[in-house]
Specification:
The chain has about 500 residues and is of the alpha/beta class. The chain has a domain of about 300 residues: Alpha-Beta Barrel (TIM Barrel). It contains 18 helices and 19 strands. The strands form 5 sheets. Strands 10, 12, 13, 14 and 15 form a 5-stranded mixed β-sheet that branches. Strands 1-7-17-16 form a 4-stranded mixed β-sheet, with helices on one face. Strands 3-4-2-11 form a 4-stranded mixed β-sheet. A hairpin with a 4-residue loop joins strand 18 and strand 19. It is globular and about 80 Å long. The N and C termini lie far apart (about 80 Å).
């Protein structure tokens, strides 16, 4: 009898362990924010920055280092001198007004479609890291296998609404062919929307063609199925490479994030408000140009923000000025009726440590309250973007789920039942055994899986693991249980055939 009881207890513990460790693919819909945004500028301050941005574009001008772009601006009525373009405010704001305030990025799986704009918030993983912090916490160059695994983790993360693209650079693939394998990996390993390459216009065209193979040409032309990112070469330069990709995507009806890359104090003035005025001018000019390419093309007002340490010249994350800047930019985007992109869980730390956590959360709070609609770098970013960490990826994903729950605001669905429990218990009792608690204990409060809240003794008994160890183990476990989403075999073969066709004419190295 005693043996049977012990076996029963062991069986119960094992059942609970299996329930805890089972992998269920969940996908949260795009968050519809129910909490207010925070406005740090009064009306006068907002107008001052807006007016300064218009004056920058009218008086200083901005360079578009692309011959076709220059012709287009001249024909539109701008003052063009070589590559310097001075844009009258009426022309600028008339073009910006053509940009849709909201749109849908369609996914392979329609349940994963991503609504951009309004009160919607979509989260996306890190982007562009040459190095990987692997499962042994070793820093090394990324590979295609690493990229495949990051795309798999993005697919399995409930609150990631986009698979991303080049989460890490697969340096084992030749640069001229790399974009094909990055795009294929995002399509193959996830059924969420993805991001397209922008390192050359022909690479952007290849991504459009691959999207047409997956969705059909008519679907792609009717609206975006991917969202891509072009960076302004601050200060005040849009270069030929970025403009080339932007033209391809805009003319194909695909969404692009128009994103100045700000290192405040280095490529902008050493001033938070001055930096925002310049950034705003750069973003508005890029969005206006996209409307010259195709009126109504779905662009996103974007930016990347870091401040430069005046001690070392290194970029810093999580500082007060970055928070102010994010909040100010949010107000500007709302003034213009533009969807907004920002960057979330960014950190300069080289380890998954307290610095990484502090910087990431300090940044994310301001971004979340700024009203951003599409938040990049929400999972895995380390070492100021030079490293993509598997451990931090899954730890960040859990934090984003918490922000998702925060964004839903207070829930009153069980309010009357909770008050009934108060009347039932009265003074001096406890609620652990009430019907209300039994019904709601699993959903009443977010219970993180990767943050340890056990007693010291239990923590020690479980191996005294730090956050990095728990993150590595969680990533390994998820990948071991990954099952790919369905992809039509004919579509898959067509994609691979296209890759073979393109690789046959592309060089293995840049000459």
């Amino acid at each position: 009898m005693a043996a049977t009881a012990r076996e029963g207890r062991r069986g119960g513990r094992e059942a609970r362990r299996q329930a805890r460790t089972a992998v269920t693919i969940r996908a949260l819909p795009v968050l519809e924010r129910q909490i207010p945004v925070y406005e740090v500028l009064n009306a006068e301050g907002l107008e001052m920055i807006h007016e300064a941005s218009l004056q920058i574009l009218e008086q200083v001008g901005i360079e578009f280092r692309d011959d076709e772009a220059i012709r287009m601006w001249r024909e539109a009525g701008a003052d063009v001198q070589r590559y310097r373009v001075r844009i009258p405010r009426d022309l600028l704001m008339g073009l910006v007004a053509k940009n849709p305030s909201r749109f849908t990025v369609h996914a392979r799986n329609p349940l994963r479609n991503t609504e951009i704009g309004g009160n919607n918030v979509a989260f996306a993983p890190t982007y562009g890291s040459p190095f990987v912090y692997d499962f042994n916490n070793q820093r090394r160059y990324g590979t295609l296998q690493d990229l495949n695994q990051f795309h798999q983790l993005a697919y399995m993360a409930p609150a990631m609404h986009n698979t991303g693209a080049v989460i890490c650079e697969p340096v084992d693939i030749p640069i001229p062919k790399r974009h094909l394998h990055i795009t294929y990996s995002a399509i193959k390993h996830s059924d969420k929307p993805f991001m397209g390459p922008v390192t050359a216009p022909e690479r952007a065209a290849d991504a459009v063609r691959m999207a047409q193979i997956v969705f059909g040409t008519d679907v792609v032309d009717a609206g975006p199925v991917m969202i891509s990112l072009v960076n302004c070469n601050s200060p005040l330069v849009w270069d030929e490479t970025m403009l080339g990709a932007l033209k391809v995507y805009a003319r194909a009806g695909q969404s692009v994030i128009i994103s100045p890359f700000v290192l405040a104090g280095a490529n902008t003035p050493a001033s938070a408000v001055g930096s925002v005025a310049q950034l705003n001018a750069e973003a508005l000019a890029g969005i206006a140009f996209a409307q010259l390419c195709r009126p109504g093309s779905p662009m996103v007002y974007g930016h990347f923000l870091a401040a430069v340490s005046m001690r070392s010249g290194a970029p810093m994350a999580g500082t007060p000025e970055i928070a102010f800047m994010n909040l100010m930019i949010g107000q500007l985007a709302r003034k213009y009726g533009l969807p907004l992109r920002s960057s979330g869980m960014i950190a300069g730390s080289k380890r998954v440590d307290a610095q990484a956590a502090y910087e990431s959360i300090q940044t994310m709070w301001a971004v979340f309250l700024s009203g951003a609609n599409y938040i990049m770098h929400c999972a895995g970013w380390n070492e100021a973007g030079l490293g993509a960490s598997f451990a931090k990826f899954v730890l960040d994903c859990e934090q984003i789920e918490m922000f998702y729950q925060l964004g839903q605001g207070p829930q009153f669905g069980d309010f009357e039942a909770a008050l009934a429990a108060v009347r039932e218990i009265g003074p001096g009792g406890h609620y652990l055994g009430t019907a209300h608690t039994r019904e709601h204990f699993q959903s009443a409060f977010f219970m993180p899986e990767l943050l340890d809240n056990n007693s010291f003794e239990q923590w020690e008994l479980d191996g005294a693991k730090d956050a990095n160890q728990r993150g590595v183990e969680a990533a390994r476990h998820l990948l071991a249980n990954y099952e790919p989403p369905a992809l039509d075999p004919a579509v898959d073969e067509a994609l691979q055939a296209f890759i073979r066709e393109r690789e046959a004419v592309l060089p293995d190295s840049v000459t």
